[in-house]
Amino acid sequence: MKQPIELRKLRDFGQTVNDSFTFFKENFKPLVRILLAICGLFILIGTVSTVFTYMNISSMFNFTPGDYESSSKPTSYIIGTIASTFILILTQAFIHLVTLCYMSVYLQKNNTIPTLAEVWGYFRYYFFRVLGSGIVMFFVICIGFMLCIIPGIYLTVPMYLVIPIIVIENGAFGYAFNKSFKLIKNNWWTVFGVIFIMSLVVGAASSIAAIPLTLVSVGSKFIPMKALSLPIIIFFSILRNLLILAYTLPAIAVCLCYFNLSEDKEGTGLLDRIEKLGQHNNQNDGLPSEEY
């Protein structure tokens, strides 16, 4: 029987990327089931929003001069796009947090698949802490980009490690913020490379549905296909919002980066194995102890 992936271990760049895909593959069914249970409503709302957005694009390209109803299409498109973007960002954030909670419970249970109730408990526990941390990090990154583009890019990478530290170690924001910079020291390019590769993968997955949606919406002006445009838009809108689950991969990869850096700097995995020597029937007692 194949052994489950050990989370706390040293990994190089290639191993981090490969193990991210391996972990996703080995936990695909339980992880996706939990993601759909917790994030399903937002995926559904996102699908409806995507349909209306691309229908507005299609109507806008069929604009008729002098038609009052047609003249209001650009406004509808702008409002729809803003709403769709907000829902997309919210869904991505939920998927990211659920994935980190899944991996945290997986670690606490000694590489055993967690249940929906366990992940949901972690999700509720960390939601507002992560929300507040996310707002602070957003302003930190914005200040970095306002000073100059390069500081903004530099700050973005350690900010990716803050949420995994909060969830895995049950740490406060200040603790996680400071530790992220300690871990990233001399490892910035490695973490940046992992994030960049996973972003390309997610972008490629999203384009599978986004490109046909754009072509159908814009092409309706040149090709008479009104009878087919709505079903096609609905189909690819559903596909696009299901493929958003691919955002699980960057979350897994960033979490593995955290484990790698933590093991390299602190040897936490080795210390855990030493502490567990001679212990049997170790039970999961819920959330980890608070870090200060």
UniProtKB/TrEMBL annotation:
Coiled coil stretches, renumbered: none
Transmembrane portions of the chain: 34-57, 77-105, 126-153, 159-177, 189-212, 232-259
The entry's keywords: Membrane, Transmembrane, Transmembrane helix
Protein name, entry field: Glycerophosphoryl diester phosphodiesterase family protein
